[in-house]
User: What shape does this take?
Amino acid sequence: MTQLLSVQNLSVGFGRGDNIKPIIRDVSFTLDAGETLAIVGESGSGKSVTALSINRLIDYGGGRILDGRIDFAASNGRALDLATLQENQLERIRGSEIGMIFQEPMTSLNPVVTIGRQIEEVFRLQGKSGSEARTETLQALDRVRIADAARRLSYYPHQLSGGMLQRVMIAMALAASPRLLIADEPTTALDVSVQAQIMALLSELQRETGTGLIFITHDLGLVAGIADRVMVMQAGQVVEQGAADHILDHAQHPYTQHLLKAVPHFTNGNHVREDAPRLAPSAAKACLSVEGLTVRFPATAGLLRRSIGAIHAVESVDFDILPGETLAIVGESGSGKSTTARALLGLVNPTRGTFRADAQQATQSQKPMQMVFQNPYASLNPRLDVQSLLSEPVLAAGQRLTRDIQARMTSLLERVGLPSDSLTRYPHEFSGGQRQRLCIARALMLDPSILVLDEAVSALDVSVQARVLDLLIDLQKERNLAYLFVSHDMAVVERIAHRIAVLYGGQIVEIGEARSVLSNPQHAYTRKLIAAVPTIERRRERFELNTDAVPTLLRPAGYEPPPAEWSTLAQDHLVRIQPAANA
Amino acid sequence: MNYLLRRLVTFPLVMLGVSILVFVAIRLVPGDSITAMLGTEAGLLTPDQRQALAAYFGLDQGWLVQYGKWLSGVVSGDLGLSVTYGKPVLDVILQRFPLTLELAFLSMVIALCCGVPLGVFAATRNGRGSDLGVRIFAMIGQSTPSFVIGLGIIYVLSAGFGILPSMGEYIPFAQDPLGNLSQLILPALTLGLSFTASVTRISRSAMLDVLSDDYVRTARSKGVPKRKVIWRHALPNALIPVVTLSGVEFGYLLGGAVLVEQIFALPGLGRMTLEAILQRDYALVQGAVLFVALNFMIVNLLVDLAYVTLDPRIRLGGRS
Assistant: This one.
């Protein structure tokens, strides 16, 4: 194998003049042609900075290369030191020699330019003529398995799903057949099943083209699936690197070991919680029961905005949760899991159906249900200090700020593991994990009996995620809380759920005890979902490519789906019988 | 299309509201049009003569009757008779309007041609000396009153070069392009300067936002040259606020620019409206305000339509 890239003693800093703060120090690694290197680390580890330094996009983010060499073997046989190259030469390297894929497909494409023209631009920059560029664009879209490519060319980014957009990004990054492809967390913003698709596509295209790949991720499970070699970064430095198998099986550095331990391993239901309250002989009665919950949004079209039917976002969902029990709702985006959670909290109006939420007898809280949202950065008002944030639900419930409430704040803060001087501080002074703890404390202010956790740990780093999950489990035991845990992450679900409901197209297709559902999934969709979960045990696995379209939720006006028929698999495991026509 | 129709339907409703407001407001101002028209001679009128004049202009009836009559006239295209000019209101307005329209248009062209490039330039050199220079210019341009700028221009030209801007009757462009431009270029510059300043500021801040967006990074990662990244990828995304601001300013200018018209002695809508108010020329004030309101609504509609062409994500008519 010929060496494609060699980075030696790279240091990059941010800031101006004398005030430069080094962010990564002394990073060295090499990459051969056709090889895949995974750079792993948590947020702030410097993995993205390293990636952006290679094609020098870091210059635009305020960074400067302080020291080191980035030797790159260009296609014309010349060796270039990218660290010292002039901007106009870099423009010729970017795209044509080094392609890049970013984390957020939704925001990484220009919203006012059609995807066809965005891909075409790369070909034009290679000096191809108009018609030639168009033909090649079409081929590029075909190559990333976008069905009906000719029509999609004239689509704008907002008309495509995240998975589709990431395919477009890949098509664009590979358009000029670069020798090196940098993928910066390319699947973090996507659903598991879509993630599997993108991973499959990446490794397949890499085999076809022989491109060197630098794959940046925080997810060790993904690393196992794709990488030849792994480099682990912490706080701007490389702590360990080597062959993928070696790192995953025989990690030397304590940080790598810690990461491996913190990653929620998905074990097909072998490690579910053993404290299910439902199994106790003296099971209490449900504190949340939902019957036939249905949410439909009207859909209109055409000149006269005539109704063309309704989007059946949630369709006849039934479940109940006992005190101290966690019901996880899993499914991909658009399956209706968040809408279900929102309907329960009254954030959207259900079209039909009833639900009943009971307060705990001890407290008789007026608001038995509270919610914790996904993004701890966006769900805390930056202008309010912690004190005001915590008192808000109390005041909103029409209570006064008494001494008791004050005491409650301090004890809750302490309980979720925040420093005692937090009360007068503002959200920006806290890290992501601390903010999520703050959100949990806020949700507990009214002493609810049910917490709705909507992807509550998805935005957190793995080790932070693990600690927040532990906190949630402890709180649940202490307070006999019921959790409705909405998540797309099967490994996290396995760790916290007693029961699992799988949502697909707005309907529950499988529900039951966690171990049973995870180890013996019956519905085709559940199986697909579980098969898509990347784990450390599955090395360089070839995921099956699947170009099926997501089913539409749009139904004609007045359409009523046939009543669900269930088959009982175990004492607590129901599977919806798939009607032949609806498959 | 449907959206356009629905918007057009709202026009008469807004006009109705505006007409009621202005009708009442102008009558709440003390004084009457006959006294204002005749000045001190009004004292010589016998009550009968006054009565006759009031009857001639229709001022002897109750407000409601007056309003009803006026409104039914407006609907059939008759805005009434101007007391001061002794001519139909519509004729007076239409005679003045071309100058105002051209002046507003010229200032906007100046503002867009100078302001957008300046703003883009400043944004790409964020924090450097040239950026600071542009920002200072914009600050001064925006905070200096137009009459100061206008008087300054006249002073420099007349004291330094002995040139006086041409004043007096409006010279239509079609009739004498050179004469027209020499008449309007200075007032257009005067108005254009502060307009440019606001366009510069808003383009700069919009560009700064956009330049840190992910898709700009993507464009760079594709190897798109710097110039193209800025003009082809970033700028189209930064234009929405610029269009919004330009629309509002243009709409204002269509109502006339009183101070600048005064300084350059131009017969525009602004001065006409001011005089009409001073003269209690009810019909002319009502007509002028209605006319300005209509213009504003048309400009707003055009701005909304411009959004759609600028950003495919925007769909008119609410939910998509």
